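Q: What structure does this chain adopt?
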Amino acid sequence: MSEISLGTSVAGVPEAAPRQPPALTTGPIAWLRANLFSSWLNTALTLVLGYFIVRYAMGFVDWAFVNAIWSVENNQTQACRALKASPTPGACWAVVTEKHRFILFGTYPYEEHWRPALVCVLFTALYVVSAMRRFWRKELALVWIVTLVAIGVLMWGGVLGLSYVPQERWGGLPITLILATFGLAFAFPLSILVALGRRSSMPAIRVLCVAYVELIRGVPLISLLFMASVMFPLFLPEGINIDKLLRAQVAIILFAGAYLAEVVRGGLQALPKGQYEAADALGLPYWYKIGFIILPQALRLVIPPLVNTFIGFFKDTSLVLIIGIFDLLTAGKTAVVEPAWQGFGVEVYLAISVIYFIYCFAMSRYSQNLEAELNRHRVR
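A:
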């Protein structure tokens, strides 16, 4: 009888090669078959839409890059107009090249453009630092205060050897970032207080919060800006004048606060009743219970609608043009009013849309990653 050892038997069997999942049931090919080529009708629609997409994409590439003019000398736009009327038209990005400083900084003094440029960098750095969870500490509030003070000093000047620049000269991207940042930064805590007030057991507070939300949500933002710009100064005592940008900022805060309050209230109502009962069973004071147990769970539930509202209000800051504030969009529209550059608004609007897209897409992607990270414990 031959002896068969375990070692010889295992050694004699070749190691099995790792097997890959079938390409037709998982992966990109399976996705294409299931979503784009699942039937003859879907296949036909996919091919037709693919043809038009490729055709217009190639046309856009020719217009935007191949046939484009990137710069001209001394505002001589004859070459751009000739190209626009030719059989192979192209974009005239020279209008962006020549007017980019006015589009970004409005009527801010030309020789002082480094100050609003530095303000934009500070705002972006503040967003990046605030987005990192490792910096979510008490010291972050101090960073915000110091940065916002530095931004105010840079924009106004008048100290540290900087020349004074009145608010009427501000414009472009810094105005958009100021309105959006201050608006959402102050509207968010206001919305939490209003949402809690709507669920309060005290009738006076509940009625007051309901009246605020319904009144603000019942009118468009344009009407609030108009009231803040035209009507509100009529009620002030003679000799008192509040800055127009500050009035517009307050209107945006009130408007955003009402909408965000409803989103937060949705998160509070979505929590199971057992969470409230469990928090009460611990015997914690009201604000400890809200701050450490209820609100973290409620806000985590409403991250997508919160960010959706943030993005909407970031774009709504362009409505301040009706009260004469030069935000990014208004500065772009004004840049093509000059006779030499009339007719090239498409290029300017595309450049502005790219700036808006960068900020809004970054917010959207960050919210998706944050939501996935906070809900990781729920994945089984």
